Amino acid sequence: MTKETVLIIGANGQIGLELAESLRNIYGQDHVISADLKTIDQPGVIYERLDVLDKDRMYAIIKKYNVTQVYLLAALLSATAEQKPKSAWNLNMEGLFNVLDAAKEGIIKKVYWPSSIAVFGPTTPRVNTPQYTVMEPNTIYGISKQAGERFCEYYFQKYNVDVRSIRYPGLIGWKSAPGGGTTDYAVHIYHEALKNKSYECFLSEQTELPMMYMHDALKATISLMDAPAEKVKIRSSYNIAGMSFTPKQIAEEIKKHIPDFTISYKTDFRQAIADSWPASIDDTYANKDWGWKPDFDLVKMTDDMLKNLK
Question: Which CATH number covers residue 72?
Fold first, then answer.
């Protein structure tokens, strides 16, 4: 079996740091290259500075290390993208084209690109949102992700590019700081609970959103990339589900560990973004096609988050 060599673009982000660690455990230190705009000190890690919009530099790195797979994680997230719409569109779309073109030209064999529940909009059924449904996103992030899904499927159909994708719900992990997403309150709340025993939430107490613990997000990502090509039936992006909860419910779970924790609410522009997203996700196709199943619920996740953050 030929040894895979993986390039992770956007490796300093919430997903990238943990994904790189997981992939190094699978493929070995020498076969995982982390790349991002800023260099961070990570002993033993092969690291390259890279702006994904610099196609020539990206191709040079791919050829230097004989890269076979690219995980493209570089993006401006929902809340940040609303502040910088043109920059977000440019980064999220042109970066994707650069990587898809590398696969089209045969320079790499396989592409992973994450989509998001942001592809859905206010007209989408909110409860158990199906894989195939109306999609009218009204955020820059969601619009770019929906367009990205269409181009992934197009490159698969027209050029046989082996591209794979997941629509991530809100992701929660303890190893990195929140990164500018609307669902990031569910990361920040744990930090504040331990530090200050209080948290002011920018969403209302009854705002239910789909969430996923980072362990499960990594498991889903790697499982999809490891699945035989014939089992990957959807080349736009797969729905996957972990759990759904409200700020009130996560606060109540934290109180079981920190009884004097308090939460208050002061909604901002992110409330409108959250209101346009699903409350829960139907992931039947991911389960049927490549065996997806989460390991964590809210109770198990809260216990693990607080234990590790301490």
Answer: 3.40.50.720
Same domain, 195 and 259: yes
User: 56 and 24, same structural domain?
Assistant: yes
Domain end point (choices 222, 239, 256): 239
Per-residue pLDDT tens for 42-101? 888 999 999 999 999 999 999 999 999 999 999 887 778 889 999 999 999 999 999 999
Amino acid symbol at 133: T
Of 9, 45, 11, 41, whose CA–CA distance to 25 is shortest? 45
Supply 275's token pair.
Answer: 């209101």
Are the beta carbons of 250 and 186 closer than 8 angstroms? Answer: yes
Nearest to 171 by CA among 122, 221, 112: 221
* Spatial distance between the Cα atoms of 31 and 46, rounded to a whole number of angstroms: 9
Q: Which of 220, 239, 258 is the last residue of a domain?
A: 239
State pTM to two decimals.
Answer: 0.93
Residue type, 102: A
- Kindly list the catalytic residues: 141
